[in-house]
Design goal:
Elements (H helix, E strand, L loop, with lengths): L6 H6 L15 H4 L3 H11 L27
């Protein structure tokens, strides 16, 4: 829900290609993630989800990949 709050709508609309599989600093405003929450994600959850601290990450690197806690 953090990285793709519109997952259900995108699946219902057959728009799976636009599903976000990682979070970058450039996504924080859109996702309404505060700096404190970002710090928490980077410190505590980075190993458990696809988190990038680079604003220019290549989302194709994460396309259709699950994070470790999701079964990958």
């Amino acid at each position: 829900m953090l990285r793709e709050p519109n997952w259900v709508q995108k699946v219902e609309n057959n728009d799976e290609d636009s599903i976000r599989y990682t979070i970058s600093e450039s996504d924080l405003d859109e996702l309404k993630i505060t700096p404190s929450m970002w710090d928490f994600l980077m410190i505590r959850l980075k190993a458990a989800m696809h988190v990038s601290n680079k604003p220019d990450y290549n989302p194709k690197l994460f396309a259709n990949k699950l994070a470790p806690h999701e079964g990958a």
